[in-house]
Amino acid sequence: MPKIVDRQQYQQKLATQAAQLFLKHGYSQLGMRQLALELGLSKSALYHYFPSKESLFSASLEAITQQGMQLSQLCLTAPLTERVDALLSLMQQIEQRFANEIGLVLDYIRGMNSQQVRADQHMQLAEKKYLELIAQYVGEQSAKKTYHILMGVMLGRLMDGQTTTWDEAKIWLLSALNTP
């Protein structure tokens, strides 16, 4: 009797595994042949689930943005310092993969101009997911400002060997959120 496979569940599994490959190797360094090989499939089997590298990348990006993006357990009426502490704790978890994510983004957008980056569905999805996540902690009105501060902090920590502390980031973030 043939094995019954839940197509959607298997696609999700492949996308999650491929996400790790994209993070490790970048976008431009991978073709469907290498992806299939590293996923343990034939190239035709991979094409059965994903008609193109672009569609696999889209599914992988969705998987990446879901990792560590748990819902806030705090209500927006909780004190701001508690919400910022919870958000920074989550960002510290995300920071563990941030270097790979930023490398993947830079590889993916290489050669694009600012209009192309703005119009790119993958870039829009990534920003949307981060903004939705952050809005759970600071509200929609402060989400974009907080997003830019946090991206700057994580990039700064990456560039300065993590000498900038999360306590400093908390002070900066609270100061920015308390300023209209």
Task: Give your account of this protein's structure.
By secondary structure, this protein is mainly alpha-helical. It has nine helices and no strands. It has helices at 7-25, 32-39, 43-49, 53-66, 80-109, 114-119, 121-138, 140-159, 166-177. The longest helix is centred in the middle third of the chain and has 30 residues, at 80-109. The protein is elongated. The mean pLDDT is 89.
Quick structural overview:
The chain has 9 helices and no strands. With 180 residues, the protein is mainly alpha-helical.
Mean pLDDT: 89
User: How many β-strand runs?
Assistant: 0
Broad structural category = mainly alpha
- Shape summary: elongated
Number of helices: 9
- Gyration radius, rounded: 19 Å
For the largest beta-sheet, the strand count, sense and barrel status come to:
none
Binned strand content: under 5%
State the helicity in percent bands. over 70%
Order of helices and strands: HHHHHHHHH
Distance between the termini: 65 Å
Spans with pLDDT under 50 lasting ≥5 residues? none
